[in-house]
Amino acid sequence: MSEINADNKDLFCNYSHEQLQQLYARACELFSENKQQLFERLAPLRTRHIAVVLEDIYQSHNASAVLRSCDCFGIQDVHVVENRNSFNPAGDVAVGASKWVDYYKYPTIEETYATLRNQGYRIVATLPHEKDTMITDLDVSQPLALVFGTELTGLTQEAIDGADEYVKIPMYGFTESFNISVCAALSLFHLSERMRADSSIRWQLDDDAQLRLKLYWSMQVIRDGRKVMEELMKTIK
User: Fold this and answer.
1) Is the pLDDT of residue 59 over 90?
2) What average pLDDT does the segment 194-217 reach?
3) Which residues contact 227 (CB under 8 A, 6 or more apart)?
4) Residue range 162-189: average pLDDT?
5) Which residue range is the domain that position 29 belongs to?
6) Residues 149, 113: one domain?
7) What integer is the mean pLDDT of 84-100?
8) Rounded to whole angstroms, how far apart are CA atoms 102 and 78?
9) pLDDT band at 94 (very low <50, low <70, confident <90, very high)
10) How many domains does the chain fold into?
11) Region 67-81 average pLDDT
12) Among the ranges 1-10, 92-101, 135-144, which has the highest mean pLDDT value?
């Protein structure tokens, strides 16, 4: 999915659930039944209980690999800090994942953290720290945002100081750290599996959010999807 910004984040905000259902039904007439079934199966599996923050990732293949992992594990939201480096996913690595995952861009880590805290997230920095927690022991009962730093230098001091908690992955070899895309994949696999296994956690999107997500996905598979969707929206009463 394209970047979620001021131009598109509130695209369907003025419509009731019933109107959005009408809109989705009309959109479904414009793409295959197979894709419709895929949307219906995957939307209930998406989550915003866990989010990902990427600070100044400069290698496109790493950015793309993280997006791909987020899609594979059903993580819907990625928050990108572009302080020094632009976020440029490489299509051959992402394998289309950028169509299905929402990503938001920010100029500073402080703005990113403030936005996430307003949404109810705990900020969890991924690095060894004197106050760190092993990933096997990290509490997943409340929404959390995992923060990953740039390839060579890791997280900035601002990102570290502003975090609520710190988490690390156990390592038993000579190498001192994982590649960022590997670290993200391992973290998301472990935490998302624990989240889904806990019946007390309400990790799924509600019906309205799922419907809006399917409408955004629809725009990805319809030619000139945004323009077509805007025309369809004019027909909804």
Assistant:
1) no
2) 96
3) none
4) 89
5) 1-46+204-237
6) yes
7) 64
8) 6
9) very low
10) 2
11) 94
12) 135-144
* Residue labelled with tokens 């230098």: 153
Beta bridge partners of residue 165, listed in sequence order: 124
- Per DSSP, the three-state class of 99 is helix
The verdict on 156 and 66 lying in the same domain is yes
Main-chain dihedrals φ then ψ at residue 63, nearest 5 degrees: -60, -40
Tokens of 91: 């299509």
> Percentage of residues in the chain with pLDDT exceeding 70?
90
Q: Are residues 27 and 87 in the same domain?
A: no
Cβ-Cβ contacts under 8 Å for 8 (sequence gap 6 or more): 2, 226
Average pLDDT over residues 10-26: 91
Of the pLDDT bands very low, low, confident and very high (cuts 50, 70, 90), residue 5 is low
Through-space distance between the first and last CA atoms of the chain, rounded to whole angstroms: 27
Same domain, residue pair 1 and 65: no
- Helical segments of 108-179, H only: 109-118, 157-162
Amino acid 32 reads S
Q: What is the CATH classification number for the domain harbouring 176? A: 3.40.1280.10
pTM of whole model > 0.85?
yes
Q: How far apart are CA 61 and CA 124, in angstroms?
A: 24
Question: What's the CA gap between 121 and 118, in Å, rounded?
Answer: 7
Longest dimension (CA), the chain: 64
* Whether residues 51 and 62 fall in one domain: yes
How far apart are the C-alpha atoms of 219 and 7, rounded to whole Å? 14
Strands across the sheet with 102-106, in order?
A: 102-106, 77-81, 50-55, 144-148, 122-126, 165-168, 133-134
